[in-house]
Amino acid sequence: MGKTIAEKILAAHLVDGEMLPGQEIGLRIDQTLTQDATGTMAYLQFEAMGVDQVKTERSVAYIDHNTLQSGFENADDHKYIGTVARKHGIYYSKAGNGICHQVHLERFGAPGKTLIGSDSHTPTGGGIGMLAFGAGGLDVAVAMGGGAYYIPMPKMVRVTLTGALKPWVSAKDIILEVLRRMSVKGGVGKIIEYAGEGVATLSVPERATITNMGAELGATTSVFPSDDVTRAFLEAQGRGDVWVPLASDPDAVYDEELTIDLNTLKPLAAKPHMPDNVETIEGIGAIKVNQVCIGSCTNSSYYDMMKVAAILKGKRVHPDVSLTISPGSMQVFNMLAKNGALSDIIAAGARILECACGPCIGMGQSPESAGVSLRTFNRNFEGRSGTQDAKIYLVSPETAAASAIAGVLTDPCTLGDMPQIDMPTHFDINDDMIIKPAEHPEDVEVVRGPNIHPFPLGSALEASYTGKIVLKTEDNITTDHILPAGAKLLPYRSNIPYYSNYCFINVDPKFPERCKQEGGGVIIGGANYGQGSSREHAALVPLYLGVKAVLAKSFARIHKANLVNSGILPLTFADPADYDAVALGNTITLPHVLEEVKNGSQITVQVGGRAFMADCEVSDRQRAALLAGGTLNYAKQQAK
């Protein structure tokens, strides 16, 4: 039986387990990346492991999230990351060099390689045929130290693209259509592989847009073949030597299949407040727009920016609209400046932001109260923009630019002939803002600012547990709900005691204080608990607050792994109907939890004189970590 692209890469990197459905497999990781919102914690964990130099082929630390320096905190974190990188063999991409996924695609990614990153949109690398995974910071630290990265063996899904996109329809519309069909839960436990005649019509940046937003499906990752289009992109980046062809075998078997006729697609938008709440622009209608933000790791490539510049050329942004543009990398920014496209964008009245995540992570540019903001980003969760009552729509760059001019949501198909944008045969290459590791690491002193605090460690599982239910949530709770990002809070990612005051603050403002009063407790969650960002702080901060378990209908993959790494029990209702029988403030008891976790059996739960069962579906390795109180504790035990 033939193999899929993903199965070929998995098999070539398999170091533990068997590639059987649902079984945990351990993979050798070729490359890692971090960004500064998660990087400080990842490198503190790496240092705690006592490894002198990274064991990967290439590890890169990017500064792209916390670039607003309104106090010393972010600058101190950047200094720490820069010095720890130089000391331990990690490349360091300075603030201003660009968004991690865009730069990694341009300068480091390679077909057939494995990549994990402490950012959920790391699957962007699938656009050039990498098997790239978002992960928690501790998983990245372990991989940098030479350890395996563990995932449950995913199912294989093939999305066949037929035909070709009509003018003004884009790759963003393809992934929005996939989200419309599969939902934000539809990709959980699956790798999405794109195939069919339509693939050859898509450039690497277009493919990367699609794999980037595969994270919104909850997918393990997404991947495209490595073909002549891939080779041309890498050669234009001066890296043609890393190209290898990759394709699935003709007789490869998939667990699910989906076909999308590109000819039939229309410009789409994801309406508030979920990426799968998708409708055509035509169907939504000409709603008034207050803000348009173009950029993010989804749509900030040279290809995207040139389309925007062509639409804006000779036009003016509507007087009632604020338009911001964030080029994805210094390479993109510089090329726009050289060819005059940047001048066209500026002349139209756009506000040019730095090459960083910016508004996507809530780092500035929050909309006005109840404002409508169109964004070429990947997430529109409630409050993520920094304005709790804002209405965020996810759209393509073409739709965004057309709407910025009109002042209302506008179908770009109404603009007439679409400008022809060709991919460059040669990109400007300047890696001066990527700092190489020190030749003499022993001479490098790691600098730690006063905002950097130790991370919490779990404690070994005890025989039984009794506490209070300190929170009950609905379905689709995101890591943004658990721990908000934004300019006010991101600087405290390395200060968990301070950050803990904001845990679940937009869901239940009393949650942090309740945890402190009760000495922690248990969280009750709905379906798809922990979707969204890979931020492990969404586990570390509840750990600091004394949370011992999360009992949910189901979990998002990365967050479940982060809970295990932190020593928090990820439990699921054996009978989802039991969710309705528990309430905030109830006393909850796990009378035999140590024995039941150790034996791999169901977990007995007692609430209000009523008993029911919960599942603790983890691998033997994760079970050992939970017994030890977390993965670092387990690793230390193994090292003795």
Cα-to-Cα separation, first versus last residue: 43 Å
Helix content, binned percent: 25-40%
The total count of helices amounts to 21
Strand order of the largest sheet: 21-22-23-24-27-26-25
Can you tell me about this structure?
This protein is of the alpha/beta class and 640 residues long. The protein is 29% helix and 19% strand. It contains 21 helices and 27 strands. The strands form six sheets. Strands 21-22-23-24-27-26-25 form a seven-stranded mixed beta barrel, surrounded by four helices. A six-stranded mixed beta sheet has the order 7-6-3-4-5-20, covered by helices on one side. The longest helix is centred in the first third of the chain and has 17 residues, at 72-88. The two termini are 43 Å apart. The mean pLDDT is 95.
Notable characteristics:
alpha/beta; 6-stranded mixed beta sheet; 21 helices
Topology:
Layout: H1 5-13, E1 14-16, E2 24-27, E3 31-35, H2 36-49, E4 58-62, H3 72-88, E5 91-93, H4 100-107, E6 114-117, E7 131-134, H5 137-144, E8 149-152, E9 155-162, H6 171-182, E10 190-195, H7 204-212, E11 221-223, H8 228-236, E12 256-261, E13 268-270, E14 278-280, H9 281-284, E15 291-294, H10 302-312, E16 322-325, H11 330-339, H12 341-347, E17 351-352, E18 372-375, E19 391-394, H13 397-406, E20 434-435, E21 465-472, H14 479-482, H15 496-499, H16 511-518, E22 521-525, H17 537-544, E23 547-552, H18 557-566, E24 569-573, E25 587-590, H19 593-599, E26 603-607, E27 610-615, H20 620-628, H21 631-639
Parallel strand pairs: 3-4, 3-6, 4-5, 6-7, 9-10, 9-12, 10-11, 15-16, 15-18, 16-17, 18-19, 21-22, 22-23, 23-24
Antiparallel strand pairs: 1-2, 2-8, 5-20, 13-14, 21-25, 24-27, 25-26, 26-27
Helix pairs in contact: 2-3, 2-5, 6-7, 10-12, 10-13, 17-18, 18-20, 20-21
